[in-house]
Design goal:
Layout lengths: L5 E7 L2 E8 L1 E3 L3 E6 L6 H14 L3 E6 L6 E6 L3
Parallel strand pairs: 4-5
Antiparallel strand pairs: 1-2, 3-4, 5-6
Length: 79
């Protein structure tokens, strides 16, 4: 795990079940998930939702550097 990764505890039904190495965590409130793929897909959004639910965070920025232009999606955990 590189120095830029931040370790988050993942919970299920309020019980810690593991950890996740976030690409970036801003002010302990915004998760930033970095990708380098041709195009973002629904699976990438689902991955962000799962990370948000497990960590208890509300907001994830999904950034893709693999396409000709930077793609950015804002993913919110409303649950």
């Amino acid at each position: 795990m590189g120095r830029s990764h931040r370790l988050l505890t993942i919970h299920y039904d309020g019980v810690p079940v593991g950890s996740y190495a976030a690409d970036l965590l801003v002010e302990k409130t915004v998760l930033v998930e970095l990708k380098a793929v041709t195009a973002l897909d629904t699976i990438h959004r689902a991955q962000c939702i799962n990370y948000l639910k497990g960590s208890g965070l509300r907001l994830c920025l999904l950034l893709n550097f693999g396409s000709p232009r930077l793609e950015m999606k804002r993913v919110v955990n409303d649950a």
